[in-house]
Amino acid sequence: MGAGKSTIGRLLAKELRLPFKDSDKEIEQRTGADIPWIFDVEGEQGFREREQAVIAELSQQDGLVLATGGGAVMRAENRQALHAGGRVVYLHTSVEQQIDRTSRDRNRPLLRTANPAQVLRDLMAMRDPLYREVADIVIETDERPPRMVVQEILSRLEALSPR
Ligand SMILES: Nc1ncnc2c1ncn2[C@@H]1O[C@H](COP(=O)(O)OP(=O)(O)OP(=O)(O)O)[C@@H](O)[C@H]1O
Ligand SMILES: O=C(O)C1=C[C@@H](O)[C@@H](O)[C@H](O)C1
Ligand SMILES: [Mg+2]
């Protein structure tokens, strides 16, 4: 959360002249509900089922940039779908930066707790190895503005040998 998947995904798609999809936005559009509301009504489990269905569908489409939600990597089915579907970029961010970048909005239900910093630390410990497992490229985003991150992704993508 707060790594910049949505922000950087959109900019990257523009540079590549490809359509951009964001699984969180896609779920919101398809349900007509926002994410906190889905978590309230269906629980995290319900949200994860919707997320998996959207990722399975979109990762099969050619020629797009897909930003996932921060927790998508937790499911093996999602990791497999993403790996099979294209190149995967892990935007790594320190927990300190995540805290800063997520402090201004309230639409992340997992952070609506007394101690969001601790939640981010716990999630990072669980998720970081999974992101690294699925990623073709790991990019550091701390102290780098989005445009610089996008330029690095583009040059790292070019350097990858074809699959
Ligand atoms: N490299 C960066 N440097 C500074 N601020 C950034 C950077 N990337 C993103 N941000 C800012 O951090 C906030 C969160 O970014 P964004 O919503 O893109 O994160 P996300 O990874 O999509 O989060 P989530 O997992 O919750 O979907 C936004 O306000 C965005 O402008
Ligand atoms: O990190 C997470 O588990 C989440 C991140 C957001 O992108 C949303 O998918 C939702 O708030 C859950
Ligand atoms: Mg996002």
TrEMBL record:
CDD domains: SK. Binds 1 Mg(2+) ion per subunit. Monomer. The lineage of its organism: Bacteria, Pseudomonadati, Pseudomonadota, Gammaproteobacteria, Pseudomonadales. Substrate binds at residues 24, 48, 70, 127. It is found in: Cytoplasm. Pathway: Metabolic intermediate biosynthesis; chorismate biosynthesis; chorismate from D-erythrose 4-phosphate and phosphoenolpyruvate: step 5/7. It comes from Ectopseudomonas guguanensis. This is Shikimate kinase. The gene is aroK.
